[in-house]
Amino acid sequence: MPDVNLRKTVSSLEEIFHEGGPVAEVPLRRAAILAIIANPFAGRYEAEIQPFMEDLKPLGLQMAQDLLEMLGGPDQVQGYGKGAIIGEAGELEHGALWHAPGGYAMRQLLGTANAIVPSTKKVGGVGARLDVPITHINASYVRSHFDAMEVGCNDAPRADEMALALVMTTGPRVHSRSGGLEAWEIKGEDGLR
């Protein structure tokens, strides 16, 4: 398979102190990293694309490590998500190649993450934006951690590129009060509850 040809990365860190209510004692921190790479399958249909997932694994690990450093280490992370924007000369299935390398990278470095990493993908032009879904790292049903973070880059993805995203957060939405399973109620048996 082709080597991963990285053009650039884009990182973002948000600190949310309030959403119109009282100021949080500890702000919610959300971090995203986007890698802009060449799409080796752009412009043609390729039947056998799965081996490229193996090539993406080192990139996934580096991106996850960068996010952990932005947020202060694995013990700070409570939520995560991933996504991909595929340039116009590619196809949606190329974004599916990011599922395993992106998701397993975060779970590997976090050590105790049991929940599946939520994901989204789309085909888009230069400047396209993507809302990356976020859930709790150990229980997908923890409603307080249902969130999303918008990612994108002003000059990507070009038609022959992919923009691959990872997102991590340090806690629930600020002012979360919608009920449901709470983080302190997680049983940790199945990644759901």
From TrEMBL:
Gene3D superfamilies: BB2672. Pfam families: AA_synth (PF06684). This is Amino acid synthesis family protein. It comes from Lutimaribacter marinistellae.
